[in-house]
Amino acid sequence: MAGDSTDSRIRAAAFEFLGRLTLRYGEVLPSTELSAGFSYEGRRVPLMGPQGIFKPAVLELPLSITSVPMVAGKARPYQDELGGDGLLQYRYRGSDPDHRDNRGLREIMRLQLPLIYFHGVEPGQYLPEWPVFIVGDDPLRLTFTVAVDDPLASDVDPAYELPDVARRAYVTRLARQRLHQVAFRHRVLRAYRESCAMCRLHHADLLDAAHILPDGHPSGEPITANGLALCKLHHAAFDRNIVGIRPDSVLEIRHDVLDEIDGPMLRHGLQDLHGRLLMVVPRAEADRPRAEFLRERYQLFKAAS
């Protein structure tokens, strides 16, 4: 039976394996490790396959669902989006509601078995979230509703615990926000070769993925062309309009800061940037800052100055 203790033990072992992988690699995991999986009582248990809804041979029902990363010019066969209820909407396998993979997720929903959700960051790199549960099925829209849950929810004091639906919607919103933030950072830092675009500082722990147009802006999408890898100093200066970037990628320091007299950090860290080009840009043209984004952000800088 799919819901028996063996199934439960394998799922628990898969979650433990993911925990070990994240300790080794960080939050974004290579697909090679996920496809290789782990050994359970002499049998291999891969966590991911070529299809979005994946069932390893050792189980009767699916273990994971995957949203593949965006690739320019290609449609995404497995997508997710946030519904009005705060939960994820995950597309069926194909257009046949009775496809065996879709039937498998339907049975997962009936038994309320936990799954792993893999969010594609870029080809070969995935950000996992677990446990997730199938909580709804819409054959007309060819979608399942997916909720992320807190693995420690059972340990929460019942007096403070939210109802399952509310808690899962809240946890799902937080998880999706984290997924997109981590994915954005990963793509931007990789595109900029883990170097600050303004000063070349090459230390990932001191770098952020900064938005050119901010999150709240209508065009402030978390895409690499709207991102800059910046050290902590230059990210703060950029966000506060102390430093601006012209559409031709030349840096400008706000006049009052440029005229200020202070120590060497101000002089070398900010004032010396004035009139220089960005020092690091992505090699791929599609990843470089879009001129229209820089132009609009530069106008915000000029207005603030």
What does this structure look like?
The protein has 305 residues and is of the alpha+beta class. It has 2 domains: 5-188, PUA domain-like, CATH 2.30.280; 194-304, no CATH class. The chain is 32% helix and 21% strand. It has helices spanning 5-25, 31-36, 100-111, 164-191, 232-239, 255-258, 264-269, 291-304, and strands at 29-30, 38-40, 43-45, 53-54, 64-67, 80-82, 88-91, 115-122, 125-138, 143-148, 207-211, 227-231, 243-245, 251-253. It starts with a helix and ends with a helix.
Shape assignment: elongated
Note the total helix count: 8
Give the overall average pLDDT: 87
Task: Provide the helix percentage.
Answer: 25-40%
- Proportion of β residues? 15-25%
Number of distinct beta strands: 14
Calculate the terminal CA-CA distance, rounded to whole Å.
67 Å
Order of helices and strands: HEHEEEEEEHEEEHEEHEEHHH
CATH topology of the largest domain: PUA domain-like
Q: What is the number of independent domains?
A: 2
Oligomer: single chain
The CATH architecture name of the largest domain reads Roll
Radius of gyration, whole Å: 23 Å
- Sheet having the most strands: 8 strands, mixed
Give the low-pLDDT segments: 154-162
Structural class: alpha+beta
